[in-house]
Design goal:
The protein folds into two domains: 2-136, 3-Layer(aba) Sandwich (Rossmann fold), CATH 3.40.50; 143-218, Orthogonal Bundle (Arc Repressor Mutant, subunit A), CATH 1.10.10. It is 50% helix and 20% strand. The protein has eight helices and eight strands; from the N terminus they run E-H-E-H-E-H-E-H-E-E-H-H-H-E-E-H. A six-stranded mixed β-sheet has the order 3-2-1-4-5-6, with helices on both faces. The chain has a two-stranded antiparallel sheet with strand order 7-8. Strand 1 (2-8), helix 1 (13-22) and strand 2 form a beta-alpha-beta unit. It is elongated.
Length: 230
């Protein structure tokens, strides 16, 4: 048994192509997620898709979930509730529909903590991209990265050569460290004239906040343990 999620907009072609690839079985369930209220084009696409699923693919288990994309949190919760009803393999085809619909559905799938296959078909129909939930997990950050972020936060903005002296590393090593933190979103790189400066991003600020909270908790626990021994 599988739960096959299809996002649907004005055109059913991506959903139909997905169904043909999956070759659904009688015990599979297809969940169609579309935006409400249904406009005429979307309603026509839904009717066509339902007809194909029932008449040609022989699928009886079909759920149609209409969500209000103007209230993303509520919409995500609604999709999650539907997903939670099925304890089976999950396939999410997010190729059709408006961007808001796709993003909300993706958020619901990821927050459901399921081992899902996420599929996207390019608009020119030439490529199919398949992703696992792990693809969306943030890059790990270690204690040495946290120390660099703290130092950047203390200074405010840093330049490569000057920062290499501050942390006692070679220019090449420092560049590699800063570039890694830029690529993972913890630092921002800005061009100033011919030079480049690095500053803490909002994600970096959040990471420092989490690290500080962990250090505080560890320190308090250590303090409590010491007092108990006394």
């Amino acid at each position: 048994m599988r739960l096959i999620i299809l996002t649907l907009g004005f055109d059913e072609k991506f959903a139909v192509r997905g169904i043909l690839r999956y070759a659904p079985k009688p015990d599979d369930t297809v969940m169609i997620i579309t935006a409400s209220p249904l406009v005429e084009k979307a309603e026509k696409a839904l009717k066509t898709l339902l007809n194909i699923l029932k008449s040609y693919a022989g699928i009886e288990n079909i759920e149609v979930v209409e969500i209000d994309v103007s209230n993303p949190e509520s919409a995500k919760h609604k999709i999650k509730e539907y997903i939670s009803k099925y304890k089976c393999e999950l396939i999410a085809n997010l190729s059709g529909g408006m961007r808001a619909l796709i993003l909300i559905t993706l958020a619901a799938v990821l927050s459901s903590n399921r081992n899902a296959l996420i599929e996207l078909e390019t608009e020119n129909l030439e490529n199919i991209i398949t992703l696992a939930p792990e693809f969306f997990k943030p890059e790990p950050i270690d204690e040495s990265d946290i120390r660099v972020l703290r130092k950047v936060a203390e200074i405010g903005e840093v330049k490569l050569d000057e920062f290499a002296e501050v942390i006692g590393k070679s220019r090449t090593t420092t560049y590699r460290i800063l570039k890694k933190l830029v690529n993972t979103g913890y630092l921002e790189e800005k061009k100033i004239g011919r030079g480049v400066i690095y500053i803490l991003s909002s994600k970096g600020t959040q990471a420092l906040g989490v690290a500080n909270m962990k250090n505080k908790t560890t320190s308090e626990q250590s303090h409590d343990t010491t007092n108990k021994r006394k």
